[in-house]
Specification:
single chain; alpha/beta; two-stranded parallel sheet; 11 helices; 9 strands; globular
Length: 316
Amino acid sequence: MSPNQEIRPIFTKRLLHPRYWLTWFGIGVLYVTVLLPYPVIYQIGKGLGLLSMRLIGKRKETARQNLKLCFPKKSQQEREQMLRENFISTGLAIFETGMAWFWSDKRLAKYVSIVGDFNITKVQQSGQGVLLIGIHFLTLELGARILGMSHPGVGVYRPNDNPVMDYVQLKGRLKSNKYMLDRHNTKGMIRALKNGELLWYAPDHDYGPKNSVFAPLFSVEKVATTVGTRILVKLGQPAIIPFTPKREEDGHYTVYVTSELEGYPIDDDVRAATFMNKVIEQEILKAPEQYMWLHRRFKTRPKGDAPLYTDNVQSD
């Protein structure tokens, strides 16, 4: 893939094929719903989240197991409360995504604030690139839009299998990004960083054993962690800045931008992964109930180690 290959949304007649009418209908419902007053959107999202907790039992067991693995010192009652709040956040995430894609800057500005954005401004004024570490919070789509209102950057993107969703998602994300790059386009990411761009990157999913090492995360000692962060830092030489989008109790959204990380070890994969996982822990603890616990973060195990999920738990 060419490092200059930027991904842009292109509308074609193919997107109007009857097989995609249901997708267009769903997008239309989402668009109309997020036109409603925010308190109404919140109640719909909360209700949908609690309903989904009853309907998607396998995902619920995945989230329950993740919370047990990461927070073994918490009581079962405390973890069950976190689980309930996490499903509420899951329901809200659908509409927060719609808010990110369809709300105007003017409407969004009434509900958001950024704390610590001077950390980004200071680096950008020096001409250095910024590797913006985005943890997989359920509010991440909205958080990226909020931050992009003042600091547009380059998005890292996994194409959607549904071309209609792919088109709408791209259009929505380009409201807060200058352009998008495929997540496999490492050369393009490095070029963007060398050109002083802000590049969003998420290192906290389990991408399998390829290009991963095992490092601790919370109370799980061996967690498959991508080495992609180290490659980007070593070759792109950016400042590393994490950010966390949080839904506050009053319905306000705050994006917390951490100061530039120091001491990142670029010459050792395991030490680098351990360092980054510690950063991920600190960010998750800012709003643990809003993190994406529904996916199997610990599905890849070292050879010979027992699986951490039972056979009846849905795989990603």
